[in-house]
Amino acid sequence: MDQYVLNHVHIMTTDPINRFQKDMYLVIRNGLIQEIGHTPLPDALKKDLPVINQKGKLLLPGLYNTHAHTPMSLLRGVSDDVPLKTWLGKEIWPREGLLDKRKVQAGTSLALAEMIKSGTVAFLDMYHLHMNEVFKLTMDAGMKAVLSRGMIGLGTKKEQHSKLNEACELAKYWNENGKGRVKGMLFPHAPYTCPPDFLEAVISQAHHHQLPLGTHLAETLEEVNDHKHQYGKSPLHHLHELGFFNKKAILTHVVHVTDEELDLLKDGMITVSHNPMSNAKLGSGTAPIPKMLEKGISVSLGTDSTASNNNLDMFQEMRTAALLQKGVNRNPDIVSTDQILEMGTLQGARSLGFAKHGLLQAGSPADFIMLDMSSLHLQPEDNLISHLIYSASGQDVTDVYVDGKQLMKDKELLTLDEEKIMYEANECFKDLESRFLNKRRKEDN
Amino acid sequence: MDQYVLNHVHIMTTDPINRFQKDMYLVIRNGLIQEIGHTPLPDALKKDLPVINQKGKLLLPGLYNTHAHTPMSLLRGVSDDVPLKTWLGKEIWPREGLLDKRKVQAGTSLALAEMIKSGTVAFLDMYHLHMNEVFKLTMDAGMKAVLSRGMIGLGTKKEQHSKLNEACELAKYWNENGKGRVKGMLFPHAPYTCPPDFLEAVISQAHHHQLPLGTHLAETLEEVNDHKHQYGKSPLHHLHELGFFNKKAILTHVVHVTDEELDLLKDGMITVSHNPMSNAKLGSGTAPIPKMLEKGISVSLGTDSTASNNNLDMFQEMRTAALLQKGVNRNPDIVSTDQILEMGTLQGARSLGFAKHGLLQAGSPADFIMLDMSSLHLQPEDNLISHLIYSASGQDVTDVYVDGKQLMKDKELLTLDEEKIMYEANECFKDLESRFLNKRRKEDN
User: Where does this protein hold substrate (chains A, B) (predicted)?
Assistant: First the structure.
């Protein structure tokens, strides 16, 4: 069904002036919102198109998760209460060394299903293994994404070259075959895992192939101090010198940066993915979001992987972003409820380079979600943006549409087999843990 | 049904050594857990008692919310992005002035229903109006609570006396008629709303009638500084001098306190209700929980009202408590996942004076909840405590029991009429808002 009308929905837009409109209809044609109007529905439309009544549901733009590592959903809950360095070195990397194609597929499928269930329509993903499987699964699931074959550049020149080559080839392949829905980018892991000459090569390839760049930056203070010790400059300054900020790029985390460093990012091409829950859980700190907003830097939200979050619910991410900034800065007005909604939707779309997305207006892609607002925790039925940001969760989402295609209907996934995905994730996890414990036992002896 | 067996449940206890036990049975008799054992169920029990199979659900102690103002659930979402003083003075108190008995009942019913739905079995409640309605509704709903007729002591001596008298009479009445399930306490609002001589009178009455005490303390820095300016000492020191800490008392918020002040609380009779989401949302700050734990002070968790939270989901409160402390202190180990679970259960029970509660063991009251752990965001099925604290929400709760009586079955409330409660809350809210806007319009003219 590529032409239809959704009737009797309440809509919430990202425009504070027309925030909430009651009892509306939306005409969807060829994946786009063709028209939005107040009911009653004109007779001509009634005759022409199938009409779907959605009485009472709240429709809003889908959510954009700008920092994920979907295959890592297999590692949810394996390690808590330790800092990033221990977490990566002792718990995550050793398990990742044991992931094969089937396990990457299982983790990715689990993540895609969880994202759709909780209202996410698009995501940024970076992973080191079998990344083309993530591409195929995302295409089949019907979501939007910007993907990258992640690169840790600590190996030999030959290994670096091979990774970069593969990353470029895959990104180009995805741009050609992703139907504009799934695109490619280059994402060197971080300045602390990618030496400067390798970063230079990556930047040069990104600019040559017109691929956006991304990297993890200034996640912990230790990482920034180590970098200064080794190179005599901060990782952000270093990236700036290397030309990383000369074209479109997204920086994830960005917790430990100075005011003066932020000035280097404010030309509009560089966006920040704020990851409050992951940064808090790993004890990394709280990013200076109000300063970024003051400087006009576009800030979106990302969950990071479920191994450090531990879910992919963007409603939780929006709420925590708001609460953390208000609490830490002891100022309840330092980030407004309006700004938080925009970070989860419109700014996410912008930072992933999806033009006209994150908006509910004629000519925009029909990417939106619907929520059942009739639950106890969303009463009284008023001040809905407050309920959305401070009380709702992904479990309130009932329907998800991308390019006009319905991916979830009344909480049932239409493009993915939920039961099969859970079974497969558990089988793969059991196998992974037994291999991991065996390996650890051998190393301990 | 006062005698039965729950069979085939997985249980999670507050004891880290026996955290998780698979495929168990529980024998419930006369409101107590009589026996917990590994399946198979002995034949004698099978013959004697009705057996309810709960294959695969996770059973854990119910959650304790140690800071609520249930009637205020009617005010969910009325004001965001402003500090405590403005929030109270401009938005909350003017609306509260318009609450009548019916509106208090409506707000309370909404809160009770939301609490049961999200796995809370007991709560502490303080409110200024129609508090006996809260008592009656709580008794009917089947929950446990410690209640108080709140007291703001800014009026005349006569008003003070009348409030204190009513508070004592109600507390005694609840202790006599609450069947040990609902009890009374005295809760002067805060040192900034209760002058010292009034506080002295309250303390004296509390000790005379053997009622526990509670108050809001050191929620904002402004409040602490104002108090020092007016009295030459901090509110905590002032309470100490007045004898507030001589017998059992609970302090809520406790954000702005020094190390030396905390030493005054460590004798075991004083407990702290930590309210991380409300403190963050109002920009009040982050309480020094690790220091309290270090000193052996019992810390439990409370949501505060939905007007500053904005829901009553204790899973969200546990998660935010963990994330905030780890993030703000830049130390992922500063509060452990184990400690957070204990704060939401066992420490809550202790601080409300419910002995033997918050435990899953023979002889404890049959107060527990069950969760469906088969959702996508709780996979893979392992490390369940991590999933509970970092990924679950109140919406994963399916069943709630208090004193062996089932209050919710498969997400359906058994003691409350959910639809009627939502209807009534909305009717009352509409009436309240129209009166409030009228009043504001008149004042503006």
Answer: 96, 149, 189, 219, 304
| ipTM at complex level | 0.97
For residue A108, is pLDDT > 80? Answer: yes
* Burial call A109-123: b when 16+ CB within 10 Å, e when fewer: bbbbbbbbbbbbbbb
d(CA B51, CA B54): 10
Q: Report the candidate in A129, A110, A99, A97 with the shortest Cα–Cα distance to residue A70.
A: A110
Task: Identify whether the C-beta of residue A279 lies closer than 8 Å to the C-beta of residue A285.
Answer: yes
Check CB contact under 8 Å for B114 and A377.
Answer: yes
What's domain B3-61+366-413's superfamily in CATH? Urease, subunit C, domain 1 (2.30.40.10)
CATH of A3-61+364-413, picked from 2.30.40.10, 3.30.420.10, 2.40.420.20, 2.40.160.20, is 2.30.40.10
Tell me whether residues A390 and B113 touch, CB distance under 8 A: no
Which of A230-239, A385-394, B90-99, B436-445 has the weakest average pLDDT? B436-445
Give yes or no for residue B15 having a pLDDT over 90. no
Do you know the residue count of chain B? Answer: 445
B114 has a chain A CB within 8 A of its CB: yes
Domain ranges of chain A: 3-61+364-413, 63-351
Q: What is the CA radius of gyration of chain B?
A: 22
∠ CA B121-B122-B127 to the nearest 5 degrees? 135
Gap between the Cα atoms of B390 and B1, Å rounded: 35
Q: Which residues of B touch A425 (CB under 8 A)?
A: 379-380
Mean per-residue pLDDT, A331-353 = 97
Q: Do B382 and A77 touch (CB under 8 A)?
A: yes
Q: Tell whether A69 is in a known binding site.
A: yes
Has residue A268 got a pLDDT over 90?
A: no
**Contact indicator for A299, A328 with CB cutoff of 8 Å:** no
pLDDT at B14: 84
pLDDT tier for residue B1 given thresholds of 50, 70 and 90? low
Instruction: Give rounded-to-5 percent helix, strand, coil for chain B.
Output: 45, 20, 35
> Looking at the predicted structure, is the pLDDT value of residue B294 above 90?
yes
Q: What is the pLDDT of residues B236-275, one digit of tens each?
A: 999 999 999 999 999 999 999 999 999 999 888 999 999 9
CATH topology of domain B63-351: TIM Barrel (3.20.20)
Mind listing the pLDDT tens digit for each residue in A54-73? 888 999 999 999 999 999 99
Question: Token pair 């297999």 is at which residue?
Answer: A74
For B360, other C-beta atoms within 10 Å of its C-beta total 23
Picking from A278, A291, A199, A286, the residue whose alpha carbon sits closest to that of residue B391 is A278
Beta bridge partners of B64: B122
